[in-house]
Amino acid sequence: MIPVVFVHGFMGGSKQWAAQQDAFEGAPMVTVDLPGFGDNAHLKPLSSIDAYAAWVLQELKDQGITRFHLVGHSMGGMIAQDMVAQAPNRVVQLVLYGTGAQGVLPGRFETIETSKQRALADGATATARRISATWFLERDKSLAYNACAQIAERSHIDAILSGLDAMNQWNGTENLPTLEAHTLVVWGDHDRTYPWSQTEQLWRTLPNASLAVIPNCAHSPHMEKPELFNTVLSDFFAA
After folding, report:
1. Residues in domain AB hydrolase-1 (predicted)?
2. CATH code: domain of residue 179
């Protein structure tokens, strides 16, 4: 069967996908830890989205994985878009989840430079816990918050700064009409990170896209409502 590859987002890691294990009717599930994050926190982080995309493609090639379904979450969704642009024949179906086509969102709550300065002032651990709380509808009271924050805390300050720089430099808007893979755009209806305008842009601009909105969730429905999230993805891959 065709494997399903999951690419996590900023300050994420492969262990965020624990609730998706064995959820796709026998299809092999492959998770990666980007350099500087999760189980690869010891590796030097990269400084651009396209470099992360090339790294994941090579990592999969080294594992003998040539064709795959691809799920990208948040910053991982940016990476997934660049993976399709770099190697369109390798991606069978694409899920862009809690993400957008611009690294710097219009009307962002603060500039990237301010975020970098705040991370330097607060430290990596405090930054990880503060940011992780925004990914859940009930913030730090969510049952999934602590597990998510513990993964985020593995990110060193250089990875946090590099991730912010990578997003700051990236804009995938021009590529959208060329991404022809069958695509599912997934959004939590209370996502504080990516507003509806970003989700709608993906859905309406990609040539072959469907939309799924997960109710009463913020940025991480795969941890807030894993059974519903898994059902939506399983139905998409089966099609």
Report:
1. 3-226
2. 3.40.50.1820
CA distance 15 to 234: 20
The size of the chain, in residues, is 239
Instruction: Walk along the chain (239 residues) and give the pLDDT tens digit of each residue.
Output: 999 999 999 999 999 999 999 898 788 999 999 999 999 999 999 999 999 999 999 999 999 999 999 999 999 999 999 999 999 999 999 999 999 999 998 777 788 999 999 999 999 999 999 999 999 999 999 999 999 999 999 999 999 999 999 999 999 999 999 999 999 999 999 999 999 999 999 999 999 999 999 999 999 999 999 999 999 999 999 98
Instruction: Give pTM, 2 decimals.
Output: 0.97
Structural domain harbouring 160: 4-238
Q: Is 47 helix (H, G, I), strand (E, B) or coil?
A: coil
A 10 A CB-CB count for 34 gives 30
